[in-house]
Write a structure and sequence with these properties.
alpha/beta, Alkaline Phosphatase, subunit A, Arylsulfatase, C-terminal domain, eleven-stranded mixed β-sheet, four-stranded antiparallel β-sheet, 13 helices
Length: 495
């Protein structure tokens, strides 16, 4: 049965609560979200060329998930679905709906969240948490209903418009609705070089003085210090390693000579650099250092034991700019990259650490997804009201209570871009349908992930009974979107 998207209902339900004073034992929560980081770009996930000692330590002191997924393989909808606990068939935002342009004068952001959306931030505010989002937002500008300060976050600092985050040396970032200038010139990161123009001075054009990751890290440390005596939620969506390839010179210098590097001149857009491989590795290692500084601060403030830290990424490694996912084996042996619903586009690193609560050095194959995070944080924070979410709490897995862990009958993905794509995971079965816009009744591909993690052998012909189930799941889970551009599943809407 086709249901209309319940926009007005979602905008009104559940937001009349008042903040309460929580007990002092309520844990602090830090959720760190990388940008375009592939499944295997951390040492603890098998990466051999990029150094990530602090995140590797985080994993060794906590739990590492091997079958954790993003909700959609691209920026804005993944963030919406993380924060609202909905899968892509129910989510308000389902694709990168861009407004405005790249220049500062045309900064317009993305499709904004609707007024009063029930986000993780709003949920945690409801039980007394002070909340912050520091990093990349991508869900609306400050003058829209998507303003993070109106969507559950007491404090915001970073990029509102994800197009601006293509440049790690922007002219400004945003703080609580106001544009804050940085000490950087205007840089057009999509300006290309040629072999004749690729001089040292030309490459220097893409470097400024105020590196966005530094500014975010400074604000994150300040927020933790300021709120150390009360429960806080820090959502920290760093923009690394999303192209452009830009990093502080000293960080890149540490990696020069470790790779067989050839200059990248902007052929696939984004900033040119004489050392693309070294710069990419440096960006990830540099973010890792910021995580290390944050972890050290928790220890110094003696709030380490009462803080759960989680780390994941919004989608798989990218295919554009000077990034070479194959060289770094960024998604290991998985198929696909960003914008694909194959495993390489949606399977993500996921680490959690909580001393004395999460046993150290644990690895789990529990199948989970980022729309589970809202339910999980509700359990952690003691939020007892009913939540309208597609997710299931994975807190029992975090605590080592496997017998109490509920499991999804299936996970569901739909993605309107790149021809329109569907995916369903049911047990070890993974179904994929591509080019849905051209042919809604096109064939499903079917893979047995227990034997074929790389999704190389399509066995759909041997399992017609499963194919029928997948069609039924799509019919059950898809709610038509409010945008025609995102509607590729229902035959009631023209293409």
């Amino acid at each position: 049965m086709i249901r209309l998207f319940p926009l007005l209902l979602l905008g009104l339900v559940g937001f009349s609560f008042l903040r309460t004073t929580p007990p002092t034992t309520r844990p602090n929560i830090i959720y760190i979200y990388a940008d375009d980081m592939g499944y295997a770009e951390l040492g603890c996930y098998g990466q051999k060329k990029i150094k990530t000692p602090h995140l590797d330590k985080l994993a060794s002191e906590g739990i590492r998930f091997t079958q954790h997924y993003t909700s959609t393989p691209v920026c804005a909808p993944a963030r919406c679905q993380l924060l609202t606990g909905k899968h892509a068939g129910h989510s308000y935002i389902r694709g990168n709906y861009e407004l405005g342009g790249f220049p500062d004068s045309l900064e317009g952001g993305q499709m904004p969240l609707y007024p009063g959306a029930f986000t993780i931030g709003r949920m945690l505010q409801g039980v007394g948490y002070t909340t912050a989002c520091i990093g990349k937002w991508g869900l609306g500008m400050a003058n829209s209903s998507g303003n993070p300060n109106s969507q559950g976050f007491d404090y915001f600092y970073g990029y509102l418009d994800q197009k601006q985050s293509h440049n790690f040396y922007p002219t400004h970032l945003w703080e609580n609705g106001k544009s804050v200038p940085l000490n950087n010139p205007v840089i057009d990161v999509h300006k290309k070089l040629t072999p004749e123009t690729a001089t040292e001075a030309a490459f220097a054009y893409y470097r400024g003085k105020d590196y966005a990751i530094d500014k975010m890290a400074e604000k994150a440390l300040a927020f933790v210090k300021e709120n150390r005596n009360r429960p806080f939620f820090l959502y920290l969506p760093f923009t690394t390693p999303h192209v452009s390839l830009q990093a502080p010179e000293e960080a890149v210098n540490e990696c020069i000579g470790k790779f067989d590097d050839k200059p990248y001149l902007g052929e696939k857009s984004y900033a040119s650099t004489p050392y693309p491989r070294a710069t990419y590795a440096a960006m990830i290692t540099y973010m890792d250092k910021q995580v290390g500084a944050l972890m050290q601060l928790l220890k110094d403030l003696k709030i380490d034991d009462n803080t759960i830290v989680m780390f994941s990424s919004d989608n798989g490694a990218t295919f554009n700019g000077g990034v070479e996912a194959a060289y770094f084996r960024s998604v290991a042996n998985l198929r696909g990259l960003k914008m694909d619903v194959y495993e390489g586009g949606i399977r993500e690193p996921m680490i959690a650490r909580w001393p004395k609560k999460i046993p150290a050095n644990q690895v789990t194959d529990h199948v989970s997804v980022q729309y589970d995070v809202m339910a999980t944080l509700a359990d952690i924070a003691g939020y007892t009201k009913t939540i309208d979410t597609d997710g299931l709490s994975f807190l029992p897995t975090l605590l080592g209570q496997k017998t109490k862990q509920k499991k999804h009958a299936y996970l569901y993905w739909e993605y309107p871009e790149k021809g329109g794509q569907l995916a369903i995971r049911m047990g070890s079965w993974k179904a994929v349908k591509t080019e849905v816009r051209k042919n809604r009744k096109g064939p499903w591909e079917l893979y047995d992930l227990s034997k074929d993690e790389s999704e190389t052998t399509n066995v759909a012909a041997q399992h017609p009974e499963l194919v029928r189930q997948f069609d039924e799941i799509v019919e059950r889970e898809h709610v038509p979107s409010h945008l025609k551009e995102w509607e590729f599943v229902s035959p009631k809407f023209g293409q």
